[in-house]
Amino acid sequence: MTAPRRLLGLAALAGLPLAVLGVFFVLPVTGMIGRGFVVDGDLDVGAVLEVLTRPRTGRVLWFTVWSSTVATVLAVLLGLPAAYALHRLRWPGRRVVRAALLVPFVLPTVVVGVAFRQLLGESGPVVALTGGRVDLDGTAAGIVAGLVFFNVAVVIRGVGAAWEGLDSRPGEAAAALGASPAQVFRTVTWPMLRPAVVSSASVVFLFCATAFGIVLTLGGLRYSSVETEIYLLTTEYLDLQAAAALSVLQLVAVVALLVVAGRLRAVPDPTLARSTTPPRRPRRSDVPQLAATALLLALVALPVLTLVVGSLRVDGAWSLAYYRALGGAGEQQALLVPASEALVTSLRTAVDATWMALLLGGLVAVVLTRRSRTRAERRVRSVLDGFFMLPLGVSAVTLGFGFLITLDSPPLDLRESPVLVPLAQALVALPLVVRTLVPVLAGVDDRQRQAAASLGAGPLRAVATVDLPVVWRPLLAAAGFAFAISLGEFGATSFLARPDRPTLPVVIFRLIGHPGELNYGMALAASVILATTTAVVVLGVERLRVPSLGAF
Known about the structure:
The chain is an all-alpha fold and 552 residues long. It has a domain at 329-552: MetI-like (MetI-like fold). Helices cover 72% and strands 2% of the residues. The protein is built from 23 helices and 6 strands. Strands 1-2 form a two-stranded antiparallel sheet. Strand 1 and strand 2 form a beta hairpin. The chain is globular and about 70 Å long.
């Protein structure tokens, strides 16, 4: 095939993803930037600087930076022992524990927020066990705890995957020469492991800095991150220019963090040697790591158990009353649509978002992994790779805000369209789908495709016989993660969901925002249902043993 024909084929494959990202990503983001810098048709940089020099903006930025830093440090300290115990040691129940510790990362953020409110509130177990001396409800410490709970799985999976592949022989040689376990770790293991730790920490910091549901649910109006401030400026104060200015600042910071994280992942460690040595049985020296893993599992299970117990306790007795009430509107007509109907809407939206993300992500993965035979092809694929990863650099709140202010006039007046929410959720899940599929497709030997073609197989037949047997498990895993992300997505959906068609996360947030014991109990019950649905999907994906989180 000639070079021009190959470039035309590449353009044809990339056409649909390019069109979708152009209309539903580039246009909203550029419109958002324009709203921040252009006033009455004129460039007004001073207005942006005025927003950034406000005292409240300074407090929001400082809270975002320090809370993300503290949460990142704690997640790394808690995740390292668990990464070792779950990926270097072999013991009964290891896979079950590893799957259980993965669940918090894919739980809807609003569910995590509700769980920690129940755990830390005045009627929660923390206050009861400490006799009221420790009250973390609505505090910065409670927010940091929620961020750690949500992100510790990133450290476990990212560092654990690297730790699992380290060659154990250098450490064993150092131990044979008289080095203590601490010395072996400091002088041998840590230099090989450091790139993975730093990379995972940078990704955790990114996720903490762009957290939305957790900070909004636990912080309210007292504590606000950049992400929640954009939401409040838009929905509460109608200050769209200030929201746009903060969105631009966040976009620049997040893209810079992604570049740093990408460079850290790309730097090869000259001392890193891969090993196929299977995990070994624990020794006496491994007891501290196993104990730390057990403690982490208990800490992760506690908020979830508190959430479940709270949803089943009504006036001091066990009851399903809160679950039965999900078919109604709550106290004082808190809901326009029953939570049961919102769950159906969430499931339908998640199905649509999943197939959209798989279609776009599959095309992108094929485009990025086909062998480049000319310099022009390599350059085109390099540019496309960076372009298709751009959604990872924009938070869901910023994306939803961009949709809100740009897709509101003909010929793109889509704010009332039922396809808008699943499209936004598909864009949020798209980077994960691509990160899951690209390493697998890149590992397929292109000579197998050439052999199939030489035997008369067409392009589709070649894909079915060569690529599909390799990619079907990662494809199912990508579908499961995309479904789970869509089911719990709250940032973009909070801007875009119509009042008569809310998703379940939006309904949960509305319930906790309205006073009344019944409303709060319904929020707990709805959170349990949403968390259970998400956990079942993720545990099914975990059985496929595809390390999707490691791609981040």
